Automatic annotation (TrEMBL):
One of its GO terms (molecular function) is integrin binding. This is FERM1 protein. CDD domains: FERM_B-lobe, FERM_C_fermitin, PH_fermitin. The keyword Disulfide bond does not apply. Residues 378-474 form the PH domain. One of its GO terms (cellular component) is focal adhesion. Belongs to the kindlin family. Residues 147-170 are annotated as: Disordered. Coiled coil: none annotated. PANTHER family: FERMITIN 2-RELATED, FERMITIN FAMILY HOMOLOG 1. Keywords: Cell adhesion.
Amino acid sequence: MVSSTEYGSHTWELLLTIDHQHEGVEKEIPVMVTGDLHVGGLMLKLVEKIKVTQDWSDYAFWWEQKKCWLLKTHWTLDKCGVQADAKLIFTTQHKMLRLRLPNMKTVRLKVSFSSMVFRAVSDICKMLNIRRSEELSLLKQSEGTLKKKKKKDKNSKEPATEDILNLSNSPVGSGLPANPGLYSKTMTPIYDPVSGSPASSTITWFSDGSLTEQNCSILALSHPTCSPEMLAEMYQPRTLADKAKLNAGWLDSSRSLMEQGVQEEDQLLLRFKYYTFFDLNPKYDAVRINQIYEQARWAILLEEIDCTEEEMLIFAALQAYHVSKLSLSSETQDSTCESEVDEVEAALFNLEVTLEGGNKTNILEDITDIPKLADNLKLIRPKKLALKAIKTYWFVFRDTSISYFKNKESAQGEPIEKLNLKGCEVVPDVNVAAKKFGIKLLIPVADGMNEVYLRCDNEDQYARWMAACVLASKGRTMADSSYRPEVQKILSFLQMKNWTMCSQAASEPENADMKPECFVSPRFTKKFKSKQLTARILEAHQNVSQMSLVEAKLRFIQAWQSLPEFGLSYYIVRFKGSKKDDVLGVSYNRLIRIDMATGDPITTWRFSNMKQWNVNWEIRQVAIEFDQNVFIAFTCLSADCKIIHEYIGGYIFLSTRSKDHNETLDEELFHKLTGGQE
C-alpha cells in the first residue's frame, strides 16, 4: 500500500489502456495522477511504466466516452475534464485505411485518424499525386446503397489482396515527412500530352517511394471496364430520393476520422465532392484528370445523372471504345517512357485543352463594347389543357435579358416582353439527328418558375444563343471573356453528336468482340439489341477517332459538364411552413427546390444573391437570407444538416481561389465557412 502522505490527498488512480502488439506487456496499466498533471506528463508516466523501448511519437490519448483526442499535451487533466472514470486509450494517430477511388480501384494506406478530415484528404491527395485536394472528400457508403449488393450476392467476400494497391509503407499526415509532390516549386514535372502519364525520368519527383511507375499508371490510366453482370449488381438510383442516398454519407471535414466512428482497415470512398475543377491542366494532372473522368463515367453508367440517347452514345464512343482502346495499346504505354515534350509545344497544348478560363487578349474591347444578339427565333409557351403555341418573333439579347418583338421592323419600339435571365435555369433540348435545337428557360417568378422554350434554326445560332443564356443565368454578359470558349465548347459537343452511318467500321474484325453493354447504362441495353448498340456506338466514334487519350478524357468531362443535371447533389428536405417533403439540389452556384413527385424545379436561389446563412443546431434547421428580403429555412431529412451547411460554405470557399496564390490553401477560412458552431 502507498501512504496518502506520499502522493497527497488530491491523488487518484487512472486506468489507461495501451494499444500495442507486444506479448507479455499488460494492455491496461493504472497510473496515479493529480488534476494539475498535464497530458504530456501523463504520457511520460505511462511510457516509463510500460518499459518497452520503441518510438512512441505517433501515440496519443483517445477518450473513448467523449469520442475525442487529447492532442493539446500542455493542457492539464482538470482543464480537459478527465476524471477517474475516464477511459483513455493510448493508441497510434496514423492507422491503415482502405480507400476506393473513383476508378473503383482500392488503395490501402496509412492515414491520420486524429487530423481533421480536410487535412487528412490533403495528405492523401499529395500521396496519390492529385492536385486541388479541396475538391475531394471522404464518403461513407450509406446502408441504402449496399442493399442491392447484399441481395445479389450474399456470399460476396472482401476484394482479393491482389486487387488492392498497397501503399502502406508511406504514411502520410501531419507530423510525418510528406513528399512535396506536385506542390514543389523547384521542379516542373513533365507529362506526356498523349498518354497523360509522367515520363519515367520524372517519376521520382512525384512519389516518396511507394507510388512506383506501375502504381502511377494504375491511377493515371483507364483500365478495362467492368462486365454487364458487375454493372447490374451495383446500386443504381431510380428516383430523386434514391439519388439523395448517394450524398448522405459525406464525412464532416472539421472533425477527425476517429471522431466520426471510422475504424482501422475500414473502407471509405474518395470522391470529388465539389464540381468546380479548377486549373485542370494535362501537364500536371494525369491522375486527377483520369479520376474525374472515371467518376463521370460511373455516374453515367449507373444513371446517377440523366442524359439523352444521343448523349449516351457519345459517352460510349469516347469512354468505351476510344479511351479503353488507347489505354490498352502498347504504343501508349511505350510513349510514357520515350517521349520528350517540347516546352513550347506543351504550353500550346495546355492552352488548347485547358478547361478553365479563355482568351483574354481583348480585355479593352470587352469592357467598352457589350455585344448583342438579334435573330428570328421560335417561341414556345406550354399551355395547360391545350397544344403548345409556337410562333416566330424577332429576339434581341442584350446584357442579361432577352426582349422579343413582333418583327425586326418593330424592334425600335417597346418589346412584347422582356425576360431577365439572371438566376434562371438553362436546359438544352437538342436532337442533332432530328435537327432540333431548343433552349428551355426556367425563369424565377414570385410563385415559382416561368417556363419558356426557344427554338433555333441551326447549330451556329443555337451555340451563340445557348452560350449567352448560360452566362446570363450567372449574371454575366457576352462581353465576358468566357463567352467565345463557351460557344466553341457547345459547337464541338454538337459536332460529336453529328455522325453518319458507316457500315464498314461495324464490320471490321477488331470491332467484332466489342461488348456494348459495358459502355452504356442498363436502360439502353434493354432498349436496343447488342448489334444495334455496337453499330450506333461505332457511328458516333467517327467524330472522336482522331483524338488523343487525354483529349478524349477532357472531351468526356466537358460533355459531362454540359448535362443539365451536372454538379447537382440531392437531399430530401422539409421547408419551413411546408406540409410535404421536397428535394433540394445543391450546385456550385445555386440551390434548387425540386418537386419530389415530378422532378420539376420550383425555385432557384443563387449564391451570388445570398447575404448570410446559419444553422440552428438545436432543431437542425438551415436558414438562409437572400437579396430582396427573401428568407428560406429547411430541415434535412436524408442526411445531417451539417452536410448541406458544409456544401454551401465549401462552394463559396472554392469561388475565392485564384491562380495568383494557388500553392497554399487558406484552411482557416475553409473551416470558418463550413465548420459551424454546434
